[in-house]
Amino acid sequence: MALTLFFLASPARAASEFDAAFSGYVTRMLLALAVLGLAGYAAVRFLPGRFSAGARGNIKILGMLNVGRDMVFIVRTGPEVVSFVSGRAGVTVLGRWSLEEWDDYEASADERGSRPRE
Q: Which strands, in side-by-side order, build the sheet including 70-77?
């Protein structure tokens, strides 16, 4: 009889210990997620310019064009202008010009009237 009571009481005791351990685990995980969320928010809010990349502000998209499923981009990257195609097959560079060459081309296109004004 004592053995029967032991086995009947044992699962109840194990279940309550499991519930306590599980609720403690969930509480710790929620607390850790809250701390990580607050740290991420503080980093984005208060440190936006502290860890800047070297090319920050020097990259500008000058033009984009859909060509089927691919995209053609013209991008100014500091002292040069690069055009490339991006699509399923990867990225292919179409051309690369210095900023002076690009500005000269734009000035001549504006004089000829072959380039629409934005």
A: 59-67, 70-77, 80-87, 90-98
The DSSP bridge partners found for residue 83 are: 74, 95
Q: Which residues of the chain have pLDDT under 70?
A: 1-16, 18, 48-57, 114-118
69 neighbors 62 (Cβ within 8 angstroms): no
Q: Six-digit token pair at 97?
A: 């010009």
pTM of the model: 0.47
For residue 115, what is the DSSP state?
S
At position 23, the amino acid (one-letter code) is: S
DSSP assignment letter at 46: H
**Contact between 99 and 113 (Cβ < 8 Å):** no
